[in-house]
Design goal:
The protein is an all-alpha fold. It has 17 helices and no strands.
Length: 476
């Protein structure tokens, strides 16, 4: 059951009508049941994993809070973290590490006959395990008190709008909203409906149409044509953004319709001028999670420059691995770790560069930095999207050595398609950036909104890529 399907539309309509009719306790119990039905529609067998994680973290949170003994508190924190990472590691990484070890031993002349398991990756497992771990860690740090209401805690873990692809919510932000009665207003309903509609537009019109361009190139075989590879990278940059940000917008919209505020997960990431700013704008719930629970725990920037660089490298290495059981994801994480380290080195010495005081020059310098860093991000997307190291090398080689400046009709056609599919998004994001308001289009005068909605609906109905294509981040 995916957001961009008739099945989900019927499901949410029923859930929402019941939600409006029930009192607070009834709403929470119904939402918990609905969340389990939603997740069970993927594969009911994996509901057991959510049950296990929920039960362990619920009891560990209480025991950590009630104990004043440091050893006992650490024991239950370890149990929570070990259980969550153990489940995540087994289902997501067992075959990956077994295969990698087998290949490593083979290089040295040893053969290892590992028993590989045909394990289906439970959808959303990376998201809800991180979400529940933050609960017990925050209690251990005395930043949060546990709840003794098990069904409400279970709802925090399984809340269906953000269960399978985030945002990764913190208990200290979401749990209080679930424990207290909520008020649904017309304003929150209208804003939620706008976010749902805009998220569906991003997914069905932009992302899924661009996916056809991207897939045609990345499923092809070498030799590649450099201009075609570059066009596909531009297409993938906007595909993955609209796919993931579209999901997050729909999740936030569903929450708003029920009076529940989910965090903003994307904030105009392609306007970033450096890697630090990019990770303050892209997948914010994951980047802040890694910062608060991994980077700071390693020491952050408190122990000297070399240690800080090490902590950045480890954090991004594991951040890359979080995305999937593949060395290409690891390389992508390492790539962004290097960008962060290099930026930190330059930023520490920016005082030696002359300061620009002319407004036009400052603005031009900003645009150049945005364009330059966007291309660095696209280089990262090549690593992220490629099927293998070999394909990465072949595509990079094509861009560098096989780039035909006399564009073929095929390249022009692809460029036209990309411009067509991202044009509305492009103008919306410019206004959002200039006004520093992600809801800016919702707040424009009525006449402007009517024209904007009409254009979006027309494009959606005529050119939308229907068929219920899954969201990219479901596989993570």
């Amino acid at each position: 059951m995916i957001f961009n399907s008739i099945q989900f539309a019927v499901f949410f309509l029923i859930v929402y009508v019941l939600y409006l009719l029930l009192d607070h306790k009834g709403q929470n119990r119904m939402l918990l049941l609905a969340s389990y039905i939603f997740y069970g529609a993927w594969d009911y067998r994996f509901l057991s994993l959510i049950f296990i994680s929920t039960i362990i973290d619920y009891h560990c949170g209480i025991r950590i809070h009630e104990s004043n003994n440091a050893g006992t508190r650490k024991k239950f924190l370890f149990l929570s973290v070990f259980a969550n990472l153990g489940i995540l590691g087994f289902f997501k990484y067992f075959n990956f590490f077994a295969g990698s070890l087998s290949s490593f031993l083979y290089v040295f002349g040893f053969s290892a006959d590992f028993r590989f398991l045909f394990i289906v990756l439970p959808v959303g497992i990376s998201f809800y395990t991180f979400q529940t771990m933050s609960y017990t860690i925050d209690i251990y740090r005395r930043q949060l008190k546990p709840t003794h209401d098990f069904p409400d805690f279970a709802l925090f873990v399984a809340f269906f709008p953000q269960l399978v692809a985030g945002p990764i919510e913190r208990a200290k932000r979401l749990l209080p909203q679930l424990l207290k009665p909520r008020k649904v207003t017309l304003d929150s309903f209208y804003k939620g409906s706008y976010l749902i509609a805009w998220g569906l537009f991003q997914k069905v019109f932009v992302a899924d149409n661009l996916a056809k361009i991207v897939d045609s190139v990345f499923t092809g075989v070498a030799p590649y044509e450099g201009a075609l590879v570059l066009m596909s990278l531009y297409a993938f940059a906007f595909q993955i953004f609209c796919d993931f940000a579209g999901y997050s917008n729909i999740a936030r919209g569903l929450g708003k319709c029920m009076g529940i505020e989910l965090m903003v997960n994307f904030k105009l990431p392609y306007f970033a001028t450096n890697p630090r700013e990019f990770w303050q704008r892209w997948h914010i719930s994951l980047s802040t999670w890694l910062r608060d629970y991994l980077y700071i725990s390693l020491g952050g920037n408190r122990r000297g420059e070399l240690t800080t660089c090490r902590n950045l490298a480890i954090t991004m290495f594991l951040g890359g691995l979080w995305h999937g059981a593949s060395w290409t994801f690891v390389l992508w994480g390492v790539f962004h770790g290097l960008l962060l380290i290099i930026h930190r080195f330059i930023d520490k010495r920016k005082h030696i560069f002359p300061q620009l005081r002319i407004k036009f020059i400052e603005r031009l310098w900003f645009y150049l930095r945005v364009i330059f860093f966007f291309h660095l991000v696209c280089l990262g997307w090549l690593i992220f999207r490629a099927e293998s190291f070999n394909q990465i090398g072949q595509m990079l080689s094509a861009i560098i050595f096989n780039f035909n400046l006399s564009f073929t009709p095929e390249i022009f056609l692809i460029a036209d398609k990309i411009i067509f599919y991202i044009s509305v998004l492009f103008f919306v994001q410019i206004f959002q950036y200039r006004k520093n308001d992600l809801m800016y289009m919702f707040k424009t005068p009525l006449a402007v909104r009517v024209i904007f909605y009409f254009i979006c609906v027309l494009l959606f109905l005529i050119f939308g890529a229907y068929g219920g294509r899954e969201f990219i981040y479901f596989q993570f």
